[in-house]
Amino acid sequence: MSAASPPPALSAVVTRLRAAGCVFAEDEARLLISAARTPAELTDMVDRRAAGLPLEQVIGWADFCGLRIAVTPGVFVPRRRTEFLVRQAIALARPAAGPAVQAGPRPVVVDLCCGSGAVGAALAAALGPVELHAADIDPAAVACARRNLAAAGGRVYQGDLYEPLPVALQGRVGLLAANVPYIPTGEISLLPAEARLHEPRAALDGGPDGLDVLRRVAAAAPRWLAPGGHLLSETSERQAPAAAAALAGSGLVPRVARSEELSATVVIGTRPARS
Ligand SMILES: C[S@@+](CC[C@H](N)C(=O)[O-])C[C@H]1O[C@@H](n2cnc3c(N)ncnc32)[C@H](O)[C@@H]1O
After folding, report:
1. Distance (Å, rounded) from C-alpha 224 to C-alpha 49?
2. Could you tell me the pTM of the whole model?
3. Mutate which of 76, 183, 236 for ligand 1 pocket (most atoms within 8 A of beta carbon)
């Protein structure tokens, strides 16, 4: 921050954030102070945070898999638990024998329902050169993902699920990461206000049992996956059996992975090598 006028003291920011109900007021105050370029911007940021905007939307970025992912207002904030999906995808892309990425052409990675593009960015950072494609229905998310995926050469499309993807990708996708909305409609009202009020409903609401979008993704996945390719999607622990059944119903071989540490569940569907 420039020294044109003295910044509000850290303690004043902490007090304001605490009064607004921020549990990690001290950490957040430090982040806001380091993100603001001027005292006026700091005041504005503190106001927006105190009004309930997610911290990441206020400072403009989220830490995800060690990367700084740009997050703009109205775009879903990548969650720490989704790092588990990334880890699972990386493990699948690397042969068990060693850490090297498989030789041959660049792996084809699709980040469907990409939001900020955090998942695609993390996969590209971990896997080295990949052919990266991402898509989302929300223009704000698409604009944000274009920023985050530019360095990896990612192409970002706007539209409903697979509809905007190039047809030439059919049968070629090695990793299809789809962190779709999966909150059951009836549980949206139970979410923290930060999500309920400041993230788009379409980023959260997965229909009556939360699996409407995943079922649509699963139904078309075999057409897009390469033989042996994998679809990965986050669910709740409770939803996992029904989600795995949806994957199996579309001809994929399902598996459920769980991290207690991150409180994360990922369903993985693999297209059989011969199908
Ligand atoms: C839970 S957010 C996940 C975002 C991102 N993948 C992440 O992990 O941070 C779900 C995303 O799906 C997008 N979405 C919802 N319905 C969609 C659809 N029919 N087609 C494409 N994207 C959709 C939303 O706009 C939102 O960005």
Report:
1. 41
2. 0.93
3. 76
